[in-house]
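Re: S-adenosylmethionine structure - here you go.
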Amino acid sequence: MESNSDTYHVPVMLTESLEGLNIRPDGTYVDVTFGGGGHSRAILQQLGEGGRLLAFDQDADAAAVASEVSSDANFTFINENFRHLKAFLRMNGVRQVDGILADLGVSSHQFDTATRGFSTRLDGELDMRMDRNSDVTARDLVNSLDEEDLAKLLKLYGELPNARQMARAIATARKEKEISTTFDLRDAVSRHLPRGMENKYLAMLFQALRIEVNGELDALKEMLLQATEVLRDGGRLVVISYHSLEDRLVKNYMKSGNFEGKLEKDFYGNVLAPMKMVSRGAIQASDEELQRNSRSRSAKLRVGEKIRS
Ligand SMILES: C[S@@+](CC[C@H](N)C(=O)[O-])C[C@H]1O[C@@H](n2cnc3c(N)ncnc32)[C@H](O)[C@@H]1O
């Protein structure tokens, strides 16, 4: 599928993200999920002399778009997983930054390209890798995990109420024939999709596999930990997440500095956390945006500020 920066992805909560970053024209910013560059482009527009943007994306398709977005010296694209945030910033001569933006998950381009295997609506190879150089695909998982492990995965990452039944259906179907496409998988579980909720259950199943294939939650945790190390005092971390597993990690981390959300206090009762939440609850898309862009429906944006040490 052909795609350029105009058709690749419509950025979600663009105004709210920029407000959250609180951009200084001469500051250094990182967009760890470049995608189609919607957020990056807007950040670049707010930067002036001395300002710099570094953008990460592990997908080579995003790299092609990055060269369209800017060839200026103040923009650096890094075709890597953001779990290596600190190392690649350092490699580019950057030790501290003023703001980091993460717009998690997959882009519309990835969803809408059948051969990537992310979409429940399109028939394609059951792949789901954001980084096509990585080893394990969704096809590998559904054909090799034993039924018990598959059920655990579907429960944990898909929060599927009937994870066991689904896992059994997959284990039965693959005895007949390898499950190699998105529609093979859909057909294998079709009898276990509750009426009227078919799409919802399929989406949960695909989400579980995608999270595992891409190690999404571990990468997020590693990035959050490094974000507090590289942010300057007063620097901002803006994260947009699309499901509760991610949002819980982000919320707990911003509130308490750990992923369990356990508040630790010093002798005087002050909370010992590297960040403070700038907004109390999660920010959600406006009615106008919800009407215009259905992808914004599940988005939750949180802003943290590095506490001056
Ligand atoms: C929702 S899209 C971002 C869209 C972007 N904000 C825009 O306006 O076009 C998420 C992007 O992040 C990338 N991504 C997700 N997890 C990543 C990770 N751990 N490391 C690097 N890139 C990642 C995906 O490949 C995808 O292109």
